[in-house]
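Entry 14. Structure prediction run on the chain below.
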Amino acid sequence: MKYNKDELEKLKESLTIEQVFELVAELGGEPQMKGDFFVSKTICHNPTGFGSYKLYYYENTKLFKCYTDCSATFDIYELVQKVKNVNGEMKSYYTKEGVLTPREWGLTDAINYVIAYFNLSFESTDFTVSQDSLEDWEIFKNYERIHDIKEKEQIVELKEYDNSILKYLPRPHILPWEEEGITYEVMIDRGIAYNPKSQGIVIPHYDINGTLIGIRERTLVKEEEKYGKYKPSILNRQMYNHPLGFNLYNLNNSKENIKLIQKAIVFEGEKSPLLYASYFGKENDISVACCGSSLISYQVHLLLSLGVKEIIVGMDKQFQEIGDDEWIRLTNKLKSIHDKYGAYTQISYLFDKGDLLGYKDSPIDRGPEVFMKLFKERIIL
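Output returned:
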């Protein structure tokens, strides 16, 4: 796979300190936030569970610095590569003779890991992160939160969390969301709660079978938004993170309607399915959220397993004017989704060709009437 250095830098720059913190926690670094930097165990050259708190990550440079004898400086890609190799995790490849042979992790493997973990996507004339690599089930096995893979059924089982922790969280009226159109009834039904300690809206994530696999929070503290509006919840000193690309938020609630209608609407963020259920009723809900900037093959597989005949893609409006650079990137992204999955099901798009939506709005953010207009005028390739 060919990577363009400039685009890899853009990907790295797009990661918030909270996202990098989450990934380091997943890698076993046991990080501690210190404001605009955090410190973790020196997992760059020690096996998981060992090392001292001398590995620092700085938000301003997007780099790690190890303050031990190695004195190394490196980025998130190199850290993943180092951690996997230090812990003896091996990749494998087939020789020309057809022999399956182990090998160490390379930088490309680490880049794939970061991209898939956060469900990121970059498309440009020079660089495309190919999701074809995610068809290789060996890649899925590298995620520590994955419990098991049933390759014949192509099912990824994520490790589950005890959902009893949610019982102790208050469920007050969350006025900012209610003012946007999300009803209190829907929030209660979807398990939305409030974390008084972090001042964040708690969003439980369940797999298709209703098993708790992660908990995310939307911060209500303005000063915290610079580190990312959304982050994994930390409750009783446990981080409830999970790889977002291996699930579809709200699928446990909408799967029966999706089976019946044979259509699914895929939004980016969790708020959009909550709005959809609030506007059109839980009994009519066919919405999910990919929790990222693109769809990966496993998420499409989840929908195909329900017999969908149309996937309606409702990405945020990530452009200000038709024809600008962001518009070109978005249209290239949508085209790539069709190119990858159009042979398996019909792909359509909720696309604002006028001024119905604001910059970065979800197709449902401006109310049910605007959404229905976009829905009726959706683009089918």
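Residues 5-155 form a domain with the DNA Primase; Chain A fold (CATH 3.90.580.10).
Filed with the rest of this week's runs.
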